[in-house]
Sequence to fold (277 residues):
Amino acid sequence: MTTPSTLPDANSQTSGNAANYGHVVSGELDVSHGQILYLEDITVSFDGFRSLNKLQLSITDGELRCIIGPNGAGKTTMMDVITGKTRPDSGTVFFGQTIDLSRMTEPEIAAAGIGRKFQKPTVFEAMSVYDNLELAMKADKTVWASLIARLSGEQRDRIAATLARIRLTSEAHRPAGLLSHGQKQWLEIGMLLMQEPRLLLLDEPVAGMTDSETEATAELFLELARNHTLVVVEHDMGFVESIADKVTVLHEGSVLAEGSLASVQANERVIEVYLGR
Ligand SMILES: Nc1ncnc2c1ncn2[C@@H]1O[C@H](COP(=O)(O)OP(=O)(O)OP(=O)(O)O)[C@@H](O)[C@H]1O
Ligand SMILES: [Mg+2]
Fold:
């Protein structure tokens, strides 16, 4: 018996249709082996310098993985490869068993269920918190079509649930520009959640946050894990300690160490190149 989802080309049939990117373009996500993301032998060079050097990474569905490592280790470049912003010179990137991300555009990868948060929040400052979430939910329409389309009860419930989750219910009708830096970061995470991603990539999410905002973000991430898979790049070790299932240390574009935070903190090479500074 043949199972269509395991045919090598099952995902490429509609990928040329860019106009379709609000819909599924790449087949079903298959996490039957437990892994949601696989990077194998990824190399990225800029002017002969290897930002990623035969990088291997495998992430389990539902886990909360933290990626640490010195400046220039390749952490952001790794996220650029996963989201299609940078094409690797060599290596493979798979989302689940069957979705070959190296053959997809950035919008197709987002539509397949991978959400990315950059360090700087990119919310619409003049619009209310609520309207930002509403627009994110309908990202496949034009702004004008989104604002005139009536919300269904179910859509209103989704926005309300997301507002509660990102701790912004009481701010719903304020312009996003008046939020604190931390609240803007949460709003942007909420906007990603409206797209119902399976995998969330977050680059230095607590940079610039107050201590209490950082603590609330740790709680939020722990609530999101399991239903989502989170890959979090952070330099804040206290934050990493409070959330990580497993930690990967990158150095010069490769994995230097991987395991519990305690085990990588005890690793002599890790102390030498990163923690001991
Ligand atoms: N578009 C690019 N052009 C040239 N070099 C680049 C480009 N993107 C990244 N690099 C280089 O690749 C290396 C890895 O950079 P990257 O931004 O991935 O590091 P990082 O681990 O995210 O560091 P940080 O902790 O400072 O954010 C750096 O030496 C950087 O200068
Ligand atoms: Mg970076």
Notes: Residues 46, 51, 69, 71-77 surround adenosine-5'-triphosphate (ligand 1) (CB under 6 Å).
